[in-house]
Amino acid sequence: MTTSSDLWQANQDLSTACLQHPFVRGIADGSLPQNSFAYYVGQDAFFLGAFARAYSIAAAKAPDWEGFEIFHNLGGGVLEEIRLHRGYAAKWGVNLEETKPGIATRRYTDFLLATAWGSGVGLTAAAMTPCLRLYAFLGQQLAQPHIPQHAFSDWISTYNSNDFEILAKQLETLLDRYAESGLELESTYRYAMLCEKDFFQAAWEV
Q: How far is the C-alpha of 189 from the C-alpha of 139, rounded, in Å?
């Protein structure tokens, strides 16, 4: 077992809660109201901007060249995801330039950036890993036994892809490499998982 797998297993209650959340179930069967998904797209685009910055900060702090390179490359993956969201925004009529972060979004991004600026790269990886691992988990679960054909099929395909799984594993490798076990690590990972759940809840309540 690795540190990242231990942390993921310790938070199965939250990953299951996210999988069963009505927002995610609405994506699964295509019944999610359009305004909920449109709100989510705008908020997620704002979140990804902070996520990319956190990667850049972690890259600058990385104690070795290999860590710098992996953090930098992961940041490039976020830029690809942002481009995907721009496509969603055009499709769903969302003006990303006018999007203002909601409370749940701001709480999550403030936490990420404060961790990136104020902590070592191991703790930063712990704050960021739940996002990738959870989305890979959701995409893989919603794709079973096959990807349904409806308005949210592209979302499921993106997070079910091998490319996204590779990104999640790369970040978990950095967590395993740099993080120091302890209560701070556990609470940081769990807080990020709670932020993910609150993010879905905020979009559902629109």
A: 20
